[in-house]
Amino acid sequence: MNIESLNESAWDAVISGTGLRESLLAAALARAGKKVLHVDKNPYYGDEYAALSLAELEAWATNTRSGRLKSVEFRKHETKTGAKLAESRSYTLNFAPGLLYTTSPLLSLLVDINLHESLEFLKVGGWFVYRAEDNNPDSFMAVPNSREDVFNDPTLDPRTKRIVVRALKSILGFENSIMKAPPSAETSLQEYLEGPSLSLPPQIVAAFTSLTLLHDLPSAISFERAESDIRKHFGSLGRFGPGFAAVIARYGSGSELVQVLCRAAAVTGNAIYVLDNAVTDIQYRIARPPEATGPAATTTESDEPGLQLRLQSGDVIWTRHFIATRSNQPSENPSSQDLTAESAAGSYWMSLYVVSSPLKRLFRTTDPPTAAGAVLYMPAGELVKDDNRNDNSIYIFAHSNETGECPNGQSLLYISTKDNGSKDDTFLDIAATSLLERMPNEDGSVGEILASVRYRVGLEPDIPARDQTSDGLHSLREHVPVIKIPDEVLDEVLDLYEAIIGSRDGFMDKQGLEDQAKSPEDIETQPESE
Amino acid sequence: MSAPERPTVIKVLLIGPSSSGKTSLLKRYVDDVFEPDDTTTTIGVDFREKKLTINKKLYRLLLHDTAGQERFRTLTSSYYRNAHGILLVYDISNRDSFLSMPAWFGEAEKFAPPGVIKILVGNKTDRSAQRAVKATEGEELAKKLGAVHFVETSAKTRDHAKEPFQKLVDVILSTPGALDPNRAAERSNVVDVPGQAGAQKQGAGPCAC
User: Ranges of Basic and acidic residues compositional bias (chain A) (predicted)?
Assistant: First the structure.
């Protein structure tokens, strides 16, 4: 495919990487009337939120050279039942499963700017805790969503029911703390729930922990942190319908969101999109070349130096601002090198399994519509392989074929856990097969793993924000969206927007566009006479 | 007051190389205007809408333009979602634009729903002196790549300019399954995310306890 040359050589902002934050920023800047060049080194949109077909994912696993991702492995599994993968294109496989709470400020923003109509949101229904050795033959305990759920739970005794409801009320702020003294900053979620005043059983601790979507052990999650996550969950319940707190967008959630945002940026006429093209060199404090075409220099900005960037395609361009995560900056940039080192901040195992079962029970809900997503929390110690047990908690975020991401009769399992240096991925497979074996189909058949990909992703240590912006370069921290699309995404974009525009006012409204020359649509033109 | 009839939505896309006149064709059809100096893409508008009444039934035709994302071949796969019809537009005075059409058909094949109705359009017949593609070539390509119709147009002179849109709607309405009843069923699983006027402004969330 011929790539024509960019006919503008000066930009207000060049953004490298089409992740969620970058795409949100591109749309906001373009709507504010800024000229934006948005590039991605990959031939596809999305970066850490990208979605690939089966064949593309396999090629990615073979070719990826990212310093951040380790132990990348793609496998097609032998099956006993003859269950088969469908054609490559019938899969939309995501790097991030993209859970959005219904109270997410990002979702409110999408509604405000009317982009939610370009997306189809589906319910994340079931929320389960896995209990392998429960006396109850059922290994899947539904996490109570309401007081009624708690009282109807046959596995709890009356005292526990009362305490659970009181603990919940206290966490949600409906009732004064049931503790004599409020929990101190060091109190963990486990200490709070198991302590003398509540002494709740392990399955209740697990249920509360599952609502945090945190991979740490309940003894390592601060009560304060857990409290805000649990409030978020319950505050989101019922907002768009009974019995669910979160949604995913059909066809890949985050990846679909990114594409809708990039189109919204392009639609303004101010943002140009180029894929498969990276920024390969940065020169700092360069005066705007007098011959440069592009956005007119305003009086206040005209004398300020900017950045000169070289693209992989050979184009050399000038920009006032350059925004990218460090993995999307030129590798010569010294700050990006430490990413290749083993991350001191730890890492996550992320994986995706294509399985030959619709897992109907997982997506069943009391109220219609049927859920397309479900969360299953597997506490530490619940899975067994030989004589070993899983040291860390594991989350399975399942997507049904309703998402349009896999064919009928199959499901996708996004399985994640923390890696504390053991580099052991044994329990990812065990988690998938345990779910499949203990949740047979109505006809008794058991699903199998058809294909899987897994990798470790290093977390970046915290860097003070002020060190990240200099001379028009805005470095974004690497973003690891393990299960949910975090609310912090929007805060980060607002900060960047303010750094570039000078104010948060008018974020995402079309004021900047209306200030520009009137768009042709606004001009009343008499139809020519025949 | 009885609820008004809900119009059936028909989603139509325009695709094809830059400067083939997609936006001009769209404006000629929707507004019956032609702006010779306006070479930019549709600014600030995600799609144009045209209401049609056919056999006493109301339709909302949603016409999506490429927003410039065709220039570097970076249309998103989400652009193609739920499309019922596609107009593939090239410029008859630009041979390269015609030669790029198989790649555009390929992209439509890859991302659009199966069974989407395609029409091939050779635009800019007003530039007959610079013609670089014969009408018969367009016709043959349309047949080869499975377009249901081929037409040469000029958004400038109005020559057949409305035909591709009208023909596309005709074929969509007369082809069993082209409006895909399954899509309506799928929609039933979609969560209604209320807009600003809706439940969003309701007070505090429900009490969970």
Answer: 508-521
Range of the domain at A300: 10-53+253-339+463-515
pTM comes to: 0.91
Cβ contact, residue pair B67, A267, below 8 Å: yes
Measured between CB atoms, does B77 come within 8 Å of chain A?
yes
Provide the token pair at A49: 């939120």
| Closest CB to B193 among A172, A240, A274 | A240
- Domain B8-178: give its CATH architecture: 3-Layer(aba) Sandwich (3.40)
Minimal Cα–Cα distance from A103 to chain B, Å?
Answer: 10
Q: What is the predicted ipTM?
A: 0.89
Sort out which chain B residues have CB atoms less than 8 A from A267's CB and list them: 42-46, 67
Question: CB atoms < 10 A from the CB of A392, how many?
Answer: 21
Chain B stretch 82-121, residues whose beta carbon is closer than 8 A to a beta carbon of chain A: 103, 110
Last residue of a domain, one of A439, A458, A477: A458
Question: Do the domain assignments include residue A333?
Answer: yes
Question: Distance from CA of residue A139 to its chain's centroid?
Answer: 28
Residues of B in contact with A165 (CB under 8 A): 209
Counting other chains too, the contacts that B4-9 makes at CB distance below 8 Å and 24 or more residues apart are: B5/B58, B7/B51, B7/B58, B7/B59, B7/B60, B8/B57, B8/B58, B8/B59, B8/B60, B8/B179, B9/B59, B9/B60, B9/B62
- Residues A298 and A431 occupy one common structural domain: no
Q: How far is CA A256 from CA A479, A502, B80, in A?
A: 17, 30, 12
Residues of chain B with C-beta less than 8 angstroms from the C-beta of A146: 208-209
Taking Cα atoms as reference points, which of A493, A469, A481 lies closest to residue A95? A481
Do B191 and A267 lie within an 8 Å CB cutoff? no
Q: Which residues of chain B are within 8 Å of residue A259 when distances are taken between CB atoms?
A: 76-79
Whether B200 sits inside 8 A of A513 (CB atoms) is: no
Let me know whether A225 and A310 are in one domain: no
Look at strands A394-399 and A51-52 and give their pairing: unpaired
What tokens does B103 get?
Answer: 């790649």
Nearest to A510 among B31, B44, B193 (CB): B44
Residues A157 and A190 grouped into a single domain: yes
A41 and A325 Cβ atoms separated by less than 8 Å: no
CA distance B25 to B34: 8
Answer yes or no: are the C-beta atoms of A230 and A101 closer than 8 Å: no
What's the CA gap between A322 and A236, in Å, rounded? 36
Name the residue of chain A whose CA is nearest to B104's CA: A1
Picking from A411, A433, A458, the residue at the C-terminal end of a domain is A458
The encoded tokens of residue A313 equal 């395609």
Each of the 209 residues of chain B gets a pLDDT tens digit; together they read: 555 678 899 999 999 999 999 999 999 999 888 876 555 544 556 789 999 999 999 999 999 999 999 999 999 999 999 999 999 999 999 999 999 999 999 999 999 998 899 999 999 999 999 999 999 999 999 999 999 999 999 999 999 999 999 999 999 999 988 887 545 445 668 888 887 544 433 444 444 44
Closest CA to A64 of A46, A49, A42, A44: A42
Q: Are B153 and B16 in contact (CB under 8 A)?
A: no
Q: In this structure, is residue A64 part of a structural domain?
A: no
Report the number of distinct structural domains present in chain A: 3
What is the C-alpha separation between A138 and A439, in angstroms, rounded?
9
